[in-house]
Design brief:
alpha/beta; 42% helix
């Protein structure tokens, strides 16, 4: 839309024409730059693009089809929800790439979603989390017991952090061989080059904000656990603090809960800040981030949007979270229609015949799952579930 300066001294039909000229000029520049954009406006007389719902109000700005990169560090259970999100984004016309560990390539590409391999072994990361108890104190104890473990973990995390740059700016290393893959769509084969217009990331992708800064593009954090933004209601998942409800929002427990988020980010910043700054300078050509606690929690300091991927019926949004934090629900492959029966492949039907027979023989059971996490003591966990039932 034109600015006041653009249209000063112009009125009536002349102003309308001026607006149209400015929009046409911007459109020509974007097309010349090779961008793949949809163009819609609030002005009468615009041709309605084929496939656009006329019931949706026209916009007074250019609505782009974006190259969206989804950065995911984690196991199979971390990747699947974002596959569902990616398919929804594709339906809205966006080009979507999921960048995660190479072990997940088939999971992603089998759904006709573009892929880029991040470094790291999710199974090993999960194993280290189990060994440390998923706590900062556990990490410290593990390092004292065997310093070589911490050294290996730090090396893997650094590889993951630096691989985020290729994820948002380079072709998939296997793109020359796409013709050999039967599950690649035509656009993936014809245009392997990729530069992100926007990034969605989960928190373990520690350098997501850095690569977005380098490209001057927006970032959105999404995760099924609270992260970055402190709250008095419950602590950071890696803090090791109690999840008992605080007696008071101003008491010691509530203050500890709130502080645990910045403390966790401070530990990461102290450990990796120097390395990331060197990489920012050498690879991204960006200035260093000051190495002190005021710059430790950059996501919160920069007001980056955070979507909490759990049901608000299960756990509502904390009262002290800012506007840019929202509890958005879980991501599934289903579209909201009533699910009567999930179609299984012939292989699954044979493999799980006894289980299917048991499920269909009575009332629907309650399923308790733990994703792809490595469970240290399965016997005790099984007994706990049976006692609860």
């Amino acid at each position: 839309m034109a600015t006041a300066a653009d249209t000063e001294g112009v009125s009536g039909d002349d102003q309308f024409k001026k607006e149209e000229e400015i929009r046409a000029g911007r459109k020509a520049l974007l097309i010349k730059a090779g961008s793949n954009y949809n163009f819609r406006s609030k002005f009468a007389g615009d041709d309605m693009e084929e496939g656009i719902d006329p019931s949706v109000d026209d916009l007074d700005f250019i609505l782009p089809k974006l190259n969206v990169c989804i950065l995911i560090v984690g196991t199979h259970g971390d990747v699947l929800p974002f596959c569902s999100l990616a398919k929804q984004l594709q339906e809205h016309g966006h080009r979507v790439r999921i960048a995660t560990h190479d072990v997940h390539r088939q999971t992603v590409t089998s759904r006709s979603i573009e892929f880029y391999p991040l470094a790291g072994d999710p199974k090993q990361l999960s194993q280290w989390t189990v060994e440390s108890g998923g706590r900062i104190t556990g990490e410290a104890r593990a390092a004292m017991a065997d310093p070589s473990v911490l050294k290996k973990k730090d090396a893997m995390l650094k590889e993951i952090y630096t691989s985020c740059w290729g994820a948002v700016s380079e072709p998939d290393p296997l793109s020359p061989y796409y013709e050999m893959f039967g599950n690649m769509n035509d656009s993936m084969k014809s245009n392997p080059n990729f530069v992100a217009d926007a990034v969605i990331a989960n928190p373990p992708c520690q350098t997501a904000l850095d690569v977005c800064e380098a490209l001057a593009i927006p970032l959105h954090i999404m995760f099924p656990q609270p992260w970055y933004y402190g709250t008095v209601e419950y602590p950071h998942p890696f803090s090791g603090l109690s999840y008992d409800k605080p007696a008071s929002s101003t008491g010691t427990q509530a203050k500890a809960n709130y502080a645990s988020y910045s403390i966790f980010e401070g530990v990461l910043h102290a450990n990796f800040g120097s390395f990331i700054n060197q990489w920012r300078n050498a690879t991204l050509k960006l200035p260093p981030i000051p190495w002190n606690h005021n710059f430790a929690n950059q996501i919160a300091s920069c007001n980056i949007p955070f979507s909490a991927m759990w049901s608000p019926s299960f756990c509502p949004k904390p009262q002290d979270w800012p506007e840019q934090c929202q509890v958005v629900g879980t991501f599934t492959q289903f579209t909201g229609k009533a699910i009567t029966k999930v179609e299984l492949s012939e292989e699954d039907t044979i493999k799980f015949a006894d289980l299917i027979k048991w499920i269909e023989s009575g009332t629907p059971p309650v399923f308790i799952g733990f994703g792809s996490m490595v469970i240290k003591d399965t016997t005790s966990l099984q007994q706990m579930i049976m006692d609860a039932a």
